Amino acid sequence: YGWYQCRFHVTAGDIYDAGGASSMKKIWSLLLSQKQKLTDDELLKLLSTDVALQKAITNWNQ
User: Fold this and answer.
1) pTM above the 0.70 mark?
2) How far is CA 4 from CA 1, 10, 11, 34, 55, in A?
3) How would you classify residue 3: left for phi > 0, otherwise alpha for psi between -120 and 50, otherwise beta?
4) pLDDT for 13-40, tens place per residue?
5) 18 and 12 in contact (C-beta within 8 Å)?
6) What is the DSSP string of the chain?
């Protein structure tokens, strides 16, 4: 659990450093606007619409 939480925090920091507060607000709005439950593939597709999240997904294990 700790590894995943650490990775989430580091990734959020990277996204913030790259795009600032507006980037985080954009991602938050994207997630809040999604009202229905998604499959893993649907969630991946949704997250891939944001460049910063796409990069985070692609580089998750690095």
Assistant:
1) no
2) 5, 10, 10, 23, 17
3) alpha
4) 988 998 889 988 988 998 899 999 999 8
5) no
6) -HHHHHHHHHHHHHHHHHHHHHHHHHHHHHHHH--S---HHHHHHHHTTSHHHHHHHHTTT-
Non-local (6+) Cβ contacts of 50 within 8 A are 26, 27, 30
User: In the chain, what percentage of residues exceed pLDDT 90?
Assistant: 26
Dihedrals φ, ψ of 60, to 5°? -55, -45
Residue 15, number of CB atoms within 10 A of its CB: 20
